[in-house]
Amino acid sequence: KLETGAIVHVLWQPDLALVFQDLLEPSWGAELGFVAAGQVVGLHRLGVNMNFGMLQSLCHHQRAVALGVYLANGGLRLAPWKGEVLRLSEEDKVVVLTEG
Questions:
Q1: Most CB contacts within 10 A, which of 8, 51, 59, 91?
Q2: Which 8-state DSSP code applies to residue 84?
Q3: 17-41 tens-digit pLDDT
Q4: Is the CB of residue 13 less than 8 Å from the CB of residue 22?
Q5: Nearest 5°: phi and psi at 15?
């Protein structure tokens, strides 16, 4: 599903093709994947309203970049607005870019 989301973004904005190509270049060593929401935000914050900007900040402290979320009840959301309010559950995942 993540690859499909990236392809859709490239179709909407062809200039992003170079960005995805550079980010996912094997020699760069970046990895794109899913991390359990509780691992990123802490179990005590599950079910609590937070915005995507706060989620990005929490990921940054873990040496990762939050690119979006996969909501168990709502599908994949890539590059949401920083002010978008999220209420993450145990089943949700955070889409992250990390150093390989």
A1: 59
A2: -
A3: 666 666 666 666 677 889 999 999 9
A4: no
A5: -60, -20
- CB-based contacts of 93: which residues, under 8 Å, 6+ apart? 34, 35, 36, 37, 69, 70
Token pair recorded at residue 93:
């995942």
Q: Which tokens hold the place of 79?
A: 């590059």
Interatomic CA distance for residues 35 and 10, integer angstroms = 23
Q: Which residue has the tokens 């940054």?
A: 60
Task: Tell the residue number behind the tokens 């989620």, with chain if given.
Answer: 55
Gap between the Cα atoms of 57 and 46, Å rounded: 16
Cβ proximity of 97 and 32 under 8 Å: yes
Distance of CA 87 to the CA centre of its chain: 15
Cα gap 69→80, rounded to integer Å: 8
Using the structure block, give the residue that is written with the tokens 């402290």.
61
